[in-house]
Amino acid sequence: MPRPASVHRKSWPGAPAGFFEVEAAGLRWLAEAEGGATTVAVLDVAVDHIDLAPLVPGRATPETAEALGRGLARTHAAGAAAFGAPPPGWSGDAWIGRQPQRNEPTPTWGAFYAEQRVRPFVRRAVDAGHLDRAGALVVEAVCDRIAAGTFDDDRPPARLHGDLWSGNVVFTDAGAVIIDPAAHGGHGLTDLAMLALFGCPERDRVEAAYAETAALDRTWRSLIGLHQLHPLATHAASHGPAYAAELVTVAARYR
């Protein structure tokens, strides 16, 4: 029976087991946050596809951008069981795009971020020939500092989207809707860092509304590069030396 035209289907024949199931679990978990960012509705999920409510793109406005910032802060504030915790009801592999990554609960943000989000992709980038050993050593040295807790703070684990680049924010006439998460427990600045790295319409408005709602202190912007190491490392592994060079440049700020 053909599916209704009111359904948006994403499919991947031969998708690894759990690929779409963890996406569905992440979307549902994000959607549970009271007053949080609007999340696309999951209609059905199977091994090789996920069916989502269709979205009609519209224009970003200052008002919808500010609503996104406030909603994202509330989604983060809804929390997670631990840094690295997967969406409830899910265990096993996770992905960012089509690259696998781990979601293992960890007591501190720094240990989680260094060991599960940055180092694995640095090593893949080296293995792919995209990142030379000298550059890798720069990033590894920063990972040592991160893992040791140098950049940890007293914020509890946030309920993260985890892959919040501009393509995963759909502005509609009814407001912004987030899609395609790599949801897990992490640090809220990681989602802001992804938006800053790849751009977002009315980003200044998103950030200002988020910072006010989340009560960020004045130093938060100085840490954005730290939280960009993960997406830069993933792109260095999959997209080549240009991202590897940017990864090293950004990492060098935090040595």
UniProtKB/TrEMBL annotation:
Family: Belongs to the fructosamine kinase family.
Region (Disordered) location: 81-102
Domain of life: Bacteria
Coiled-coil stretches: none
PANTHER family: FRUCTOSAMINE 3 KINASE-RELATED PROTEIN, PROTEIN-RIBULOSAMINE 3-KINASE
Recorded GO MF terms: kinase activity
InterPro entries: Fructo-/Ketosamine-3-kinase, Kinase-like_dom_sf
The entry's keywords: Kinase, Transferase
Name this polypeptide is given: Fructosamine-3-kinase
Pfam family, one: Fructosamin_kin
